[in-house]
Amino acid sequence: MINHPPAYDINPGNVTEKVIASFAMTSAREQQLLTSLVSHLHGFARENRLTHEEWAKAVGFLFRCGEISDEKRDEFMLLSDVLGLSSFVDMTDAPEGATEGSVLGPFYASDSPERPVGADLRPDGVGEPVLVQGRVLDPDGRPIPGALIDMWQTAENGLYATQDQTLPDDAFRCKMRCDAEAGFSFVTVMPGPYKVPDDGPVGDLLHAGGRTAWRPAHFHFLIMAPGHRALTTEIFFEGDPYLGTDAVFGVRRSLIVAPLQDQGRRRVDLVFRLVPAALSEAA
């Protein structure tokens, strides 16, 4: 039985200490994070002299985030994104030598079908074709054969297949195993820019703050290989009008590419670099 200090006789000067002392997490790291979280939450309330009405409004906001979330929409992930927290963690936790990461976003679905290299992701082959091809390498340029590419994007209308009921649920997304040369390729369409969902509490926050909800067009990639640290990133395109005002702060200069012309169609060439898991842990 954990011996907690008495929780009565609390006051603004000791409540933070008593709350922290009431927790005894089995993981030292979890205890550290929880201690810091409680300290900063209480510090925020103390610094700003938070009123009961303001506290209740914040709790109600979080309740609404949970209420609108489902298996196809994660409002808490979206909140993290628009507050820049997702990008902050991506950047500060990035291993040296890997391709820069970017946000996962609220529309990732883990059940994308596995397709062969060279697959056409367009439903019935409809839409202006774009060839996307690339390789997965380690920081020294050595290929990583068998790396798994998990890719998803919007259609030209700026909607993901999970949002657009006119599209098959698995349109414009796939998993793909790289070949013996660590290569991958698929045919798709250029994704359209879109607004993050602004019909919920996060949208209300953006509107209240005079923020845009628009994101530049992009491909999402989640890349995994045994013995290597997984990479979550995005690919953006030169000339997109929303590159400088991305609602979720996901754009990085190194992730902006210029599509090429190849035999009458556009082509996007990519190289992704994964670091060994041991190297990323040491960093």
From TrEMBL:
Signal peptide: none
Protein's GO biological process: catechol-containing compound metabolic process
Annotated ranges, domain Intradiol ring-cleavage dioxygenases: 132-160
Pfam families: Dioxygenase_C (PF00775), Dioxygenase_N (PF04444)
GO MF: catechol 1,2-dioxygenase activity; ferric iron binding
Entry keywords, A to Z: Dioxygenase, Iron, Metal-binding, Oxidoreductase
Cofactor: Fe(3+)
UniProt family annotation: Belongs to the intradiol ring-cleavage dioxygenase family.
Name of the protein this chain belongs to: 6-chlorohydroxyquinol-1,2-dioxygenase
